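subagent[fold] <- orchestrator: predict structure for attached chain, return tokens only, no commentary.
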Amino acid sequence: MKYERPKFGPESKFEEVPMMFSANTMKVPVLEYPISVKENFKRAAERNNPVWVPNSMTDLHTVGQNDLCGMPMPEPKEGEEAPANPWGSNQRMDFTDAFGCVWTFVPEAGGPMLKPNHPPRLADITQWEKEIIWPSDEGYDYIGAQTAFMERTKDIDKVMHINIGQSCTERLVALLGGYTEAMVAMVEEPEAVKDFLMAFGEFTKNSFEKMTQVAKVDFVTFHDDWGTEKDTFFSEKMMEDMVYEPSKLIIDAVKKHGANFQLHSCGRIERFVPYMIDMGVDFIQLQRRANDVPMLKEKYGDKIGFNVSIEGLDHGQVVPMDELREKIRNTVDLYGKGGGLYTSVFAGSDEDRWDATQELFWYSREYYEK
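subagent[fold] -> orchestrator:
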């Protein structure tokens, strides 16, 4: 062990950071970095000699879309102090998105699902040009919102990350009312699906460009689930004919801004990784239990990066600190080669969070200095 890990104590420095998809905050250790976190993250994304493995808890600042677009907030209902926000709620809550799709927030899952037994927003994909009303940004103050955000944020030195949400196929699924309906449409009406996805890609590209007129976003995540835990929803040919081009349209817009791009995709989608590489994806978030991620790192790690959880640690699982340290080291050993890795370190108490964060930081520094 080259570097002594700083011990937890009264002098240990922490800062409050917002929790993603929640109104809550959490305390994370303050680290002393040899280079800026932005430069190190860029190196990790480009697989170009990072100094340590970035930790999303300490190195990233996740920006809400509302912070960058100036969306007018709805007036609170009678008896409410502020508009209801489903994210982070501990109760089921229905809401309608900007496209008119109705969702139910499910606290047990930590996210929303299409409201069961509710009519789809679009019953026939061939009618999308007549029936889809694209979200309007009338009344949005993009420049004012971004200027105010950049002036007030305290985390300007961190990696500015925006998690935008649904990409192409997820929006298709939402509008048609489910995966079955969307996959049937891809088989029966491929031209209409492609036309809609291209229009959605153009809409998303334009929306992103408006949100980054003043704000400098460093890192962007889109979600597009492409499979179940058994296999992909659609074939390679469908990827090539319908999904690839509109997805790349969005990715190119992000890369043109100078930001790195991350694709979150659930399901066993190993067959689609080469397409992600061709699209220009920098990091992928995959389900570990559905994909052989160590194999993918070995096979494609010189071309694409991986955002992984601590290897061998189930979500919410608590293990003794000595075991957690070993799992952190194993994660770096498995995925750190050549860069292209960032992860997250969660722990319950301040002391455990301190020790785990320090272990990732210093062990990965030792790893890369080798």
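orchestrator: received. Logging for downstream: The first strand starts at residue 14 and ends at 18. The domain at 14-369 is CATH 3.20.20.210 (TIM Barrel).
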